[in-house]
Amino acid sequence: MKKKTGVLILNLGTPDNPNPKAVGVYLREFLNDPRVIDITWLARTLLVNGIIVPFRKRKSSAEYKKLWTSKGSPLLLYTVELLEKIKAKFPEDDITIEMAMRYQTPSMDDVLDKMHKANYDQIIIVPLYPQYASASTGSTLEKSMKIISKWHVIPEIKMVSQFWDHPGYIDTMVDLAKDYDWRKYDHVVFSYHGLPERQVDKVYEDRQCSNHSCEHEINEENKFCYKATCYGTTRLLVEKLGIPEDKYTVAFQSRLDDKWIKPYSDRIIEDRAEKGNKKLLFFSPAFVADCLETTVEIGEAYKEDFLKIGGEDLDLVPSLNTHPKWVNALEDIIRTRL
């Protein structure tokens, strides 16, 4: 008898609507996660609920309104569409695919409750974050385990921690880049979401990411280091695309202070403009679906900043979204764990 399998794909989440109240609810849940802001409970509570959310929700609401479509949040829409496409890849009646968000709706609590009632022999949990980070993958897997640990009967559980080097993931980005001939640009920037330096330092026994060749190789010590796998992803992409070393830069965006992983994407833009670059091409490999950080932060804000300081054009290669090769890659990621 075949094992009855439930698969749960998970993305980060999005406000229910772009208005300040809903954005505040989303930010409060997201930023109060101890893996996202890893300081003491009291300090985090005062910082998030007393300072960040009250002062940031209106500004963030304005940014979300730029992103929002008549059908809703692109991140949610693309994830729902991806769910339907991946379901079609599994016509077997003993395999069911579900989707949830780490924050907001559809909630992990509700979807895992539904899966609990289905009485699966095994559950495969797939966070849609290519590179492992405690604040994204770690948080998502931890919440999954907390929910499932309360069940009386716990089935076989399999979890995907990262897939940055999956050939299908890389090939999808290479295929998307075909519409953007990198040779026509002065420089290429691979921009990943930033993290506080202390979070990548925690991967190591000596608490020093800088001691572990993260920019140059993947080894036994750094294979779960977010910074190392971002550089690893880039090396795979530039090899496939044929981009020479002096033509590209790895950078990190969305920082909150000056103790985040460097170099910073916005500073790279300034640096390239000072060097006389007129055309920049951006990739955002940490995101599998277009969202605030890609469409608005890079596609609008960074582009506007670059034009103001002498640039002529800044283009962004789209995220994987529901590209057929990405659907095939996700199918393979799941099937290898059946």
What are the key terms here?
338 residues; alpha/beta; Rossmann fold; 2 domains; four-stranded parallel β-sheet
Topology record:
Layout (H helix, E strand, L loop, with lengths): L4 E9 L6 H12 L9 H27 L6 H15 L6 E9 L4 H11 L3 E6 L6 H15 L7 E4 L7 H10 L10 E7 L3 H5 L24 H16 L6 E6 L11 H10 L4 E5 L8 H17 L4 E4 L7 H12 L3
Parallel strand pairs: 1-2, 1-3, 3-4, 5-6, 5-7, 7-8
Helix pairs in contact: 1-2, 4-5, 6-8, 6-11
**Number of structural units classed as domains:** 2
Order of helices and strands: EHHHEHEHEHEHHEHEHEH
Using the alpha-carbon principal axes, give the shape.
globular
The computed structural class is alpha/beta
- Alpha-carbon distance between the termini? 14 Å
User: Beta-sheet strand percentage?
Assistant: 5-15%
Major sheet: order of its strands? 2-1-3-4
Main beta sheet: strand number and arrangement?
4 strands, parallel
Poorly predicted spans? none
Summary?
By secondary structure, the chain is α/β, with parallel strands linked by helices.
Give a verbal description of the structure.
This protein is an alpha/beta fold and 338 residues long. The chain folds into 2 domains: 5-163 and 324-335, 3-Layer(aba) Sandwich (Rossmann fold), CATH 3.40.50; 181-316, Rossmann fold. It is built from 11 helices and 8 strands. The strands form 2 sheets. It has a 4-stranded parallel beta sheet, with helices on both faces. It has a 4-stranded parallel beta sheet with strand order 6-5-7-8, sandwiched between helices. β7, α10 (292-308) and β8 (313-316) form a beta-alpha-beta unit. α4 crosses α5 and α6 (167-176) packs across α8 (226-241). 42% of the residues are buried. The mean pLDDT is 97.
